[in-house]
Design brief:
single chain, 262 residues, mainly alpha, Rna Polymerase Sigma Factor, Chain: A, 13 helices, 70% helix
Length: 262
């Protein structure tokens, strides 16, 4: 798959590196050497997606991301190629998922219903609502409320990715928003992204300690739900529930931020 994609997209890098374009042999070697990153990143993302989505489609998108990384990498920016390649691969896969628009409208409606309920109760109570209060507000039992939260977890992941280029990239001093920015990026857009990241940082700080830990293990350390459960001594289903609630809270806070900023 890697070699066929290389043949389709030509031999020479379109964007010169310091000293000129890479020779075709070196370019191909670099792509093949780092190709295991594609399956790793695609596999980690696929774990968070419905089973009907094809891993091969994610890998194909990731190949294009790696090729893009090789063609655009600038060593003078003092960033490791591996870091840049991971960013480009992940970005290409996320772009492919956006294009698929795989989240059903019914699920998006449920997510918006939960966010609106959370927002309304927070304003009414002057604090974040308890699960029982959310269920009562929505006029469902507690079990149905937890089901709704779990059903909308995927919306949370990509809502945040759409605005911050991936919560997994949200870490202090990330190279993504500094040395790895494209020349064509608008400085105003860069400032907006930094502001949004500050909003998310504050929102994460207001999550419970338990929720912060799950977010950290799942996105920063890239553990699976099962692996995070072993670390925290919880069942996988309990980790899923904690993660889903955290995503709902973050979505609601981001929605409020955008509404107030508009």
């Amino acid at each position: 798959m890697i070699r066929s994609t290389l043949n389709r997209y030509g031999s020479y890098a379109e964007t010169p590196h310091p000293g000129g374009p890479l020779p075709p042999e070196e370019r191909e070697r670099l792509i093949l050497d780092y190709s295991p990153l594609i399956r790793y990143i695609a596999g980690r993302i696929a774990m968070r997606l419905p089973a009907h989505l094809s891993l091969d489609d994610l890998i194909s998108a990731g190949i294009l991301g790696l090729i893009d990384a090789v063609d655009k990498y600038d060593a003078s920016r003092q960033a490791k190629f591996k870091t840049y390649a991971e960013y480009r691969i992940r970005g290409a896969i996320i772009d492919e998922l956006r294009a698929m628009d795989w989240v059903p409208r019914s699920v998006r409606r449920k997510a918006q219903q939960l966010e609106s309920a959370f927002h309304a109760l927070t304003n009414e109570l002057g604090r974040e609502p308890l699960d029982e209060e959310m269920a009562e507000f929505l006029e469902v039992d507690l079990e149905r409320y937890y089901t709704l939260v779990n059903e909308t977890a995927g919306v949370g992941l990509f809502s945040i990715i759409d605005t911050t280029e991936g919560l997994a990239q949200f870490m202090p001093g990330t190279l993504v928003d500094n040395a790895l920015k494209d020349e064509a990026d608008n400085p105003a857009d860069h400032l907006d992204k930094n502001e949004i990241k500050e909003v998310i940082a504050r929102a994460i700080e207001k999550l419970t300690e338990q929720e912060q830990m799950v977010i950290s293990l799942y996105y920063y350390d890239e553990l699976t739900m099962k692996e995070a459960g072993k670390v925290l001594d919880y069942t996988e289903s309990r980790i899923c529930q904690i993660h889903s609630k955290a995503m709902m809270k973050l979505r609601a806070k981001l929605r409020r931020y955008f509404e107030e900023s508009s």
